[in-house]
Specification:
Blueprint lengths: L1 E4 L6 E4 L2 H13 L3 H14 L4 H8 L3 H14 L21 H10 L4 H12 L5 H22 L1
Antiparallel strand pairs: 1-2
Helix pairs in contact: 1-2, 2-3, 2-4, 3-4, 5-6
Length: about 150
């Protein structure tokens, strides 16, 4: 992955080897994460001498995103297109909340709102009622899966 600077257009072009093109096409077609597939497609489009603005328009993304992906690809290769752990919004509720949520639900079985308020008071965290309900659904699914696995 080499960057060629064209003097006239002043846009960076990406020249891909056959192996790099195949890896990007495989990532675009078979990648498990949608964001990774879009990023692979962006690099493939950039290798066809499209500008950042043209790529952004085709993929319906922001121009600075295409610039950043191109830069990351030039430095790190295809691994630079993957989302790194720790990026993105952190969850409001996680596995550390499970015990407190279970206690709140056992004390307030009839009302999700009351259980949520009890959990908020004991944990010091705030969450919407829908977030609390989703967390309860995940807990219920985990319990169901573990019971099915046991027999």
């Amino acid at each position: 992955y080499t960057l060629i600077h064209t003097v006239i257009a002043r846009k960076k072009q990406i020249v891909l080897s056959d192996a790099e093109r195949l890896a990007l096409e495989a990532g675009y077609k078979n990648g498990s994460d949608h964001r990774f597939r879009v990023r692979c497609r962006a690099i493939l489009l950039k290798s066809e001498k499209l500008s950042n603005a043209e790529v952004a328009q085709k993929l319906d993304v922001a121009v600075p995103s295409v610039f950043n992906w191109t830069k990351r690809y030039a430095i790190q290769g295809i691994s630079g297109l993957k989302t790194k752990p720790g990026q993105g919004r952190k969850p409001i509720m996680d596995c550390t909340d499970e015990t407190l949520v279970r206690e709140a639900v056992s004390q307030e079985r009839q009302s999700v709102k009351a259980a949520k308020n009890l959990w908020e008071a004991s944990s010091g965290k705030k969450a919407s009622e829908i977030t609390f309900k989703r967390f309860l659904e995940v807990l219920a699914q985990d319990i169901s899966v573990s019971q099915n696995a046991q027999g």
